[in-house]
Structure to design on (318 residues):
């Protein structure tokens, strides 16, 4: 009997995606439900169980040897619990125990969503072949994860690499996390849009006031839009430089919706890195756009299940 597959879950505030994934990272079976994010915890769990039930209906299910879960955070991998900010019904919710029961007793690996995306980029994407990498998701929030010495580094609770809540502005605006001047408070999509609006940028006739609309305005030279992206780029650069100086990463991979802004973000980011990443051992640090698409969370959760959280992600058959 083949036992070369794993099940994977990617749990976010909008949707719960599931898949059966083979040892090369190919997705063979998919399932999905909307996240009933405002319902009570057990109702949210029922949506997870439905996704697992759909996967278990596949004739391939019997070949699955483990279940990997990448979840919106914070997660606590050591306790097997999750407390996603945008799913209020889940506070210290025993997701691992419930998911193991729903998956017929399969062993479960839980990691944060930023760590999952990092595992995917290291396995198959822009960080492939890099032993020391920071992978970031810049969208509604700013998350991330670390690869150190060739291994995924989730940390004891599965949250390591959470660069969005490094402070880069000591006296900056309060952040919902309780700190102030966090990277996320400056560089997330909603904050890029907010700052542009505060400084006089106005959306076009379609009324789109998202960061993507600010990026479009920046691309045609709108100075306020350009300035908002430059400020976000400087915050990201300061956070990346701090990370590189601490642990000697050689690549920072930028994904997420804001990452899709491309050179509007990456050009000022690379320039700002020249200001902040100054010591000899961080000067060769490169910045690259993410390569994994919307399946990154699933593929990364699968990598964690295949390799085990503390084993090299490259042990997953690559
Ligand atoms: Zn914060």
């Amino acid at each position: 009997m083949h036992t070369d597959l794993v099940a994977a879950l990617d749990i976010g505030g909008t949707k719960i995606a599931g898949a059966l994934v083979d040892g090369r990272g190919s997705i063979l079976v998919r399932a999905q439900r909307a996240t009933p994010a405002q319902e009570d915890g057990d109702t949210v769990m029922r949506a997870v169980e439905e996704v697992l039930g759909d996967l278990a209906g596949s004739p391939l299910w019997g070949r699955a040897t483990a279940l990997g879960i990448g979840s919106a955070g914070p997660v606590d991998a050591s306790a097997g619990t999750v407390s996603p900010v945008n799913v209020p019904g889940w506070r210290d919710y025993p997701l691992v125990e419930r998911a193991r029961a729903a998956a017929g007793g399969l062993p479960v690996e839980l990691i944060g969503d930023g760590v999952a995306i990092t595992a995917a980029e290291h396995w198959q994407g822009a960080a492939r072949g890099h032993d020391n990498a920071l992978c970031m998701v810049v969208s509604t929030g700013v998350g991330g994860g670390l690869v150190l010495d060739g291994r995924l580094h989730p940390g004891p609770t599965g949250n390591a690499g959470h660069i969005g809540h490094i402070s880069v502005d000591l006296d900056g605006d309060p952040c919902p996390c309780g700190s102030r001047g966090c990277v996320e408070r400056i560089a997330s999509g909603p904050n890029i849009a907010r700052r542009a609006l505060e400084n006089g940028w106005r959306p076009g006739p379609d009324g789109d006031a998202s960061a993507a609309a600010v990026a479009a305005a920046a691309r045609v030279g709108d100075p306020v839009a350009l300035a908002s992206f430059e400020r976000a780029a400087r915050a990201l650069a300061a956070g990346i430089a701090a990370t590189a100086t601490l642990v000697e990463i050689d690549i920072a991979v930028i994904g997420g919706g804001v990452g899709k802004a491309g050179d509007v973000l990456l050009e000022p980011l690379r320039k700002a890195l020249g200001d902040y990443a100054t010591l000899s051992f961080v000067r060769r640090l490169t910045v690259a756009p993410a390569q994994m698409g919307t399946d990154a969370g699933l593929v990364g959760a699968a990598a964690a299940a295949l390799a085990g959280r503390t084993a090299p992600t490259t042990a997953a058959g690559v």
In short: The chain is about 35% helix and 20% strand. The domain at 126-291 is CATH 3.30.420.40 (Nucleotidyltransferase; domain 5). The longest strand covers residues 15-22.
